[in-house]
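Q: What does the assembly look like in three dimensions?
Context provided by user:
Components: three
Sequences:
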Amino acid sequence: MKFLSRFYVGIIYFFLYIPIAVLIFFSFNESKSRTLFTGFTTKWYEKLFTNDIIISSVINTLAVALIAGIIATVLGTMAAIGISAFNRKMRELVINVSYLPIINPDIITGVSLMLLFLFLRIELGYTTLILAHIAFNVPIVIFNVLPKIGQMDKNVYNAALDLGCNRRQAFFKVMLPEIMPGVMAGLLLSITYSFDDFVVSYFTSGPTSQVLSVVIYSMTRLKVSPEINALSTIMFTVVLVVLLAVNVFEIKKEKRLLQKRTGGGSWL
Amino acid sequence: MAVKKVFAVLLALLMLALSSFTAASAEEEPYTIHVEDESYYQKFQGQGLEINVYNWGEYMANDSFNFVDVNQEFEKLTGIKVNYTLFASNEELYAKMSSGGTTYDVIIPSDYMIGRMIKDGMLQKLDFDNIPNYKYIDQEYRNKNYDPENEYSVPYFWGVVGIIYNKTMIDASEITGWDIFWDEKYADNMLMFANSRDAFAISLLDLGYSFNTTDEGELREAAAHLSEQKPLVQAYVMDEIYDKMEGGEAAFAPYYNGDAVLMMSECEDLAFYIPENTSIFVDAFCIPEEAKNKEAAEMYINFMCEPEVGAANSIFVGYSTPMTAAWELLDEDTHNNEAAYPDPELLEKLDSFATLPRETNGLVDQLWTEIIASDVGSGGWLLILLLVLLIGSSVVINAVRKSHKHKRMMD
Amino acid sequence: MVKSKYPAFPYLLFMVIFIVVPLGMVAYFAFTNLDGKFSIANIVEVANYSSVIIRSLWMALVATVISLLLGYPFAYFMARRTVHVRRTMLMLITLPMWMNFLLRTYAWMTILENNGLINRLLKLLGLGTLQLINTQGAVVLGMVYDYLPFMIIPLYTVLIKMDVSVIQAAQDLGGNPMEVFTRVILPLSVPGITTGVTMVFVPAVSTFIISRMLGGGSDLMIGDLIEMQFLGNTYNPNLGGAIAFVLMVIILFCMSVMNQFDSDKEEAEEEVVVI
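A: Here is the predicted structure of the complete assembly.
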């Protein structure tokens, strides 16, 4: 049974990684063929670095993800705080409406936002792109912060007020740290979704604000260049390194916590 | 620990990869471009202008293969930034422009689409004082039927539609006309145009009608004919065809002669056949009505009409130039290439796509969507059946849960 | 507790403008014709494409079921490992998710093509070639591949949070492994199943890239149809709006069906946190 489960897990991982491995493998291919390996070369990576369109789109994507993520986080956190103060009916209404961008297929979100911008006669460009990203990111933030607010001990805030803080101090020094994990999670998720988004960006961006996904999409409709493979390999490596780093960080954090708990003994 | 080991291996690989960059790559002689009158191009230097250019894919020289990137050359020469984006068909161009979200400064539609856009008031008249290089455009490409006074467009490339085929997968003698696309022997071994106009043209020609017909009966017949063909088609493609034909994925496909020239140079197994009743087309530069930088756009068009630029584009893209001055800069092999520059006698007999009236366009659009979208047979009743099933199952599930709850409460 | 409702007001305004109004515009386009007058014609025209809708629903359903069948055992095995192993396994599952979705789909073209890797291998072994790409099967495969992690992660989340003592109690009370599974573990994992199914079915039914890249440009799905009407080969925003409207209704409908299974909505909200 144990062998079977290990074998099954292995098969699934194999299934998940084989296309990525193929992409990486053929990024070193001498010829442009996607299926026949003729020789080893790194020239596609060099070409990639001189490809202005791709480089500028990566910068665009990062910029949009960061800006939209940060604005969405601020807006969403404020919203979550306000929402938790609503009465039950209002709260349910707002929550249900906020759910819409999450459960709606992204093509509907993209098309609807495009129609909105056309109606308002705003030209498709950076502004519309960022607004669109904020639109689908804010609900993500809200649904990450709201539970944290719910879990918070309500009396701590009042205690801070009693002890002489004004409301602003009480918020920043008491409430914010409590909900910070939710806020951070919302921020990270927003940045991730924005970076990886294709459909919404496709409908709401213009020629001056091409994001990476849209550039990749137009590349796949043309004569194919192994530069795409090189790009995939680089993205994969970056993500792998980041995830590994996060993992190592988490493990170290846990070790420290473990030490703290078993170390001192004063309040055990 | 496992995580740390993976980390180390990756770091080593990265080092290895980076070190290989320092290895010198063979530098070829770069292709250079010279313009006659550089001073004309300095007008907007330093003003930080930008133009949005919307073009077909694989339709302008860039610096892959260490060739010259004409857009970059233009930017260097004039200081005007080019935002270059691509479309795959005239209909897509029309859709993007109709939806109104983006204003382009230069677009490159085909003849019939230019006619349509002129009728719809989507283009503005060009100021030919700003395009002195128009003098290089041959007489036979001026004042064509889609733009009789030649006020709205400047030709870029011309071409013909033909059949590109793989000699190892189908014998040349079998291809005698458009009927090969309905030959069941090659089921799943043929590709087809992914745009309505070209696809309908082939179908109409095979049925013996004109590809400029507006007769509804003929169009519906052509649509039915295309639906018949659908099971035989491996895929509907535009520029994806390059990979597929070069990779030997299909035996034959219809496409434009310029692209065929490129594909044949990449893969020796490919050849090109031009049916007698095929169409000839011209793609031309136009400036949309809402363009923001008309003069900068005109400067761009003028640049593209420099003989050396025209020649560079023609070499890279494979298409046939309407400028003799550019043609003279091409080599003997290209001059004699039957696919790139077919026999003038053949060309004389060819017709081009006319601009069709609005209702015809609407009908063709609708028929095309139906062809592409549907399987033969199923109708609206299936949808209703599905809805009923969904409602029914949800009611049943609800009822079952309620009865379970009830049972639990009773215990 | 912060009793102030004011912080939410900017968002409320934003929400109305960027969530409610756009959807209203979709409805507006759906119910008007080219001249701007009220008309049901476009909605009726959607019925012409019912085969596309059925096909999309069917393929998404198949992809969802396959993901569930593949993902559940995987999540189950993953949940039973030690913390260190689980963490690494989770990381390896989320890694493909972070790679660009288009690139991952694109990679399958290389593998499935007539001269692609699988067929080359088959030729080498002397077996004939198979038509793998440009089929509905390829599209379903692409869907399963792209969305499998979205099925595994909610299942895993629910399985590790499961109260071990309940399982042990069932075992103590004499249940064999099969009974313990079907009568204790499976029902308790239903919230994860519903989340996973939602996260696979909704994108699968509305995708347009997968069907375009792996399906050969025919065999259109709803997403392709909608895209064609706005930015593609046929420009008809009213028809596009109508199809989008029908799609929204279908999705909302499926959501409500799913909600029948999901009694605990708070737990569903928490699911979003972990992902």
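Follow-up: Chain B has two domains: 38-158+281-349, 161-280+355-401.
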